[in-house]
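batch_manifest entry 22 of 60
target: F-box/kelch-repeat protein
source organism: Populus alba x Populus x berolinensis
requested by: lab member K.T.
priority: normal
notes from requester: please return tokens only, no post-processing; we will run our own comparison against the previous entry in this batch. if the run fails, retry once and flag.
--- input ---
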Amino acid sequence: MFCYDVWSGIITSRCSMIFPRKKFATAVLSGKIYVAGGGSRAGATLEEYDPDTDTWRVVSNALRRRYGCLGAAVDGVFYVIGGLNIGGALGNEITRAATAGTEAYMYASSMDLFDVEARAWLRSRVVPGGGCVVAACAVAGYVYILASHAVELSFWSFDARRHGGWFGKWCRIKSPPLPAQVRLDSTVRFSCVGVENKMVLIQVRGCLDDLLRRSGRSVRGLKEGLVLIYDCISGEWSRGPDLPEVIRRGACVTVEC
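--- output ---
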């Protein structure tokens, strides 16, 4: 792991995670970094990083072994969202083969909630419309989730503010302004990040193709680098300037300066 100082531009090496991970969920709570998912052995644990001591420790076993999951944090809760079921306890070839079909997608529209202070898992939640979660982030007390349904996208908000112990209302909101008839091929990837009261959605890989391609025509849709901005106050989307250069499979993060 590396630490980048945004003021000085200096990059320093930090302690590595206890378990190697790939495509895992991560978020920051109370000045500490939490990670979950991302491998057979790693997927069974939740780790916490303390930047003051430069140390990692396992703080809990995971409810589900997820791969390709996303992370968000609101009001003391770490959300582990979406991803695939990566199989049994040892993650061997037999268990991976057993989940190669539709069972591998059983976690794609669900999320697990970990209370950092109580060191306890809360009741898991499921996106009402189903589908496959392709982007998620936290903004102003809500978790915003973008789900794919093969030929369309749905966009949801989850009220994560803990009102005396009660929270968790879902609301379907206005979807991103993409072409009316759009096909999301298997290579399309999104990344998103919350900035004040806005959610910035960035297409970091693949191409959004319109249905003309299905009729044999070579017309291409929107290329990677598309930037869309959702205003959580007005509930409206706007188009931002496209990325001049795309880091494929890249993730986004904001830093308060």
